[in-house]
């Protein structure tokens, strides 16, 4: 265990559903990240939050909506997704800046039907 | 834009042998960090080793070591005395040292360890 938890671990949703992914870290970190991991592609950074403020949105479609209510929690709200959005969604956290490593959660395996 | 290339989608190694995973990157920056992450099957991604670009000495962590060639923009990972538990996806990653810039990952190399 890395100190970063994600729920749910698996999610199947239809294209018209609305769901949310949750990430929680107990490491005292002040930066949190969402990544998308698809087969045969590099990890794609989606969003970055530093001290609860969004500092990076990597051209992510608006059907993905992040929320960071505090430095320990990060959500990814999903609505009207497409089948190509099926992937493993990874959350990570770190101390901001420097050589600090990112600690990853186990991911949510999302399938859009 | 920075890119990270891992040219070996899959590798295999006999238990107790040594294997080297390759990674090259493209950047115009002079100060940056390089990482190798390991993602075992159905388990969380964890950091294996990291290297600061300004350090000439190659980083080592027990059985894991890197061969950092800054001029060639190469950052290979060597695993010595391979163990069954080393089987995983290995990702090379890069980050500029200034600010809290995000990691740029390669596509990964799947390592199999043969008993």
What is the gist of this entry?
Chain A is mainly beta and 113 residues long. Helix content of chain A is 0%, strand content 57%.
Please state the overall shape of chain A, judged from the principal axes of the Cα atoms.
globular
Let me know the number of strands of chain B: 12
CA gyration radius of chain B, whole angstroms = 14 Å
Estimate the strand proportion of chain A: over 45%
Low-confidence segments of chain A: none
Distance between the termini of chain B: 41 Å
Q: What kind of oligomer do you see?
A: heterodimer
Structure description:
Helices cover 0% and strands 57% of the residues of chain A. Chain A is an all-beta fold. Chain A is globular. Chain A starts with a strand and ends with a strand. Chain B is mainly beta. Chain B has strands spanning 3-5, 10-14, 19-21, 24-26, 32-39, 46-52, 60-61, 64-69, 74-79, 88-96, 104-105, 109-114. In chain B, strand 8 (64-69) and strand 9 form a beta hairpin. The radius of gyration of chain B is 14 Å and the shape is globular. The interface between A and B is medium-sized, with 26 and 24 residues.
Main traits of this protein?
heterodimer, A: 113 residues, mainly beta, four-stranded antiparallel beta sheet, 0% helix, B: 115 residues, six-stranded mixed beta sheet, 52% strand
Topology readout:
The complex is a heterodimer of chains A (113) and B (115).
Chain A: E1 4-7, E2 10-13, E3 18-25, E4 31-37, E5 44-50, E6 53-57, E7 64-70, E8 73-79, E9 87-94, E10 103-104, E11 108-112
Chain B: E1 3-5, E2 10-14, E3 19-21, E4 24-26, E5 32-39, E6 46-52, E7 60-61, E8 64-69, E9 74-79, E10 88-96, E11 104-105, E12 109-114
Parallel strand pairs in B: 2-12
Antiparallel strand pairs in B: 1-4, 3-9, 5-6, 5-10, 7-8, 8-9, 10-11, 10-12
């Amino acid at each position: 265990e890395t100190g970063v938890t994600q729920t749910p671990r698996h999610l199947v949703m239809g294209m018209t559903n609305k769901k949310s992914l949750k990430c929680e870290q107990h490491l005292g970190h002040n930066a949190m990240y969402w990544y998308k991991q698809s087969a045969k592609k590099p990890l794609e950074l989606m969003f970055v939050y530093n001290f609860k403020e969004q500092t990076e949105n990597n051209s992510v479609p608006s059907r993905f909506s992040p929320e960071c209510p505090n430095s320990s929690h990060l959500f990814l709200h999903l609505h009207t997704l497409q089948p190509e959005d099926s992937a493993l969604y990874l959350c990570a956290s770190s101390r901001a800046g420097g050589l600090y490593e990112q600690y990853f959660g186990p991911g949510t395996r999302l399938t859009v039907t | 834009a920075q890119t990270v290339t891992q040219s070996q989608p899959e590798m295999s190694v006999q238990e107790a042998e040594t294997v080297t995973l390759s990674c090259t990157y493209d950047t115009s920056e002079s100060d940056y960090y390089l990482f190798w992450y390991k993602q075992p099957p159905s388990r969380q991604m964890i950091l294996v080793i990291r290297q600061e670009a300004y350090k000439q000495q190659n980083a080592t962590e027990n059985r894991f070591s890197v061969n950092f060639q800054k001029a060639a923009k190469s950052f290979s990972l060597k695993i010595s005395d391979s163990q069954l538990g080393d089987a995983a996806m290995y990702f090379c990653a890069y980050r500029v040292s200034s600010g809290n810039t995000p990691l740029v990952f390669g596509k990964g190399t799947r390592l199999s360890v043969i008993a």
